[in-house]
Amino acid sequence: MLQKIQQTADFIKNKIAGEIPQIAIILGTGLGELVHSIAIEKEISYSDIPNFPVSTVEGHSGKLIFGKLGGKDIIAMQGRFHFYEGYDMKEVTFPIRIFQALGIKYLFVSNAAGGMNSSFEVGDIMLIEDHINMFPEHPLRGKNHKELGVRFPDMSKAYDKDLRVLATGIAKENNIKLQYGVYVGTQGPTFETPAEYNYFKIIGGDAVGMSTVPEVIVANHAGMKVLAFSIITDLGVIGKIVEVTHEDVQIAANEAQPKMAFIMQEVIKKL
Ligand code: HPA
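A: This is the predicted complex of the input protein with hypoxanthine.
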């Protein structure tokens, strides 16, 4: 694995002429439009990157984007790898290992999620304060390479406090409503039954989705600071549950995304 990571990181370093960024962004659902705010310097298709998995999901094209956002050098992943697509956890989190090898310090993530918290509404943005890992496979299972991180990583600060304070301040100053809560990561691809939404609420979740947790675990193992947001695209609140489709999720996410993109960009400016 170490050799593969090195090979891929070397390939990328050779492709980017300028500064190697310290900031990586996963353009998950709700952040697709952020790409238009990036002054793009270089793009590399996942299919051209040695050892990289290839993205398949509708609404997620696959490439790495290098450029400037908020005056800073950044790498953005357009398209991510979901466990439900059939990738194993090492594949899902491989890009995070590449970021680590490149020296990335900050990881910014977005996703779409169903809200269980009864004060949430469709279109809300939730700042993720913590997560519950419900995936059936752990990204750090197997041999631990101490070059990559410790065997038993701490997860008490998975979502960096300083970044959260910064994001909260920016939202307040600009009258952007933010919700706060715990993200439950599940494998999907089914949305939840009413009983499952209720269960995730009872165990302490505010929102549930099918991504983010694996990447955040590996980013923490790698010593990165993480900031992550969910767009609440549907409600798993008893009495408010309606049928949900992928299209509904995309529509709700598109409406909320300018606000989330604004917060991300302002946080990056202040780093
Ligand atoms: N459940 C799981 N994943 C999701 C949901 C949901 O309700 N909404 C968007 N992604």
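The chain is about 30% helix and 25% strand. The mean pLDDT is 92.
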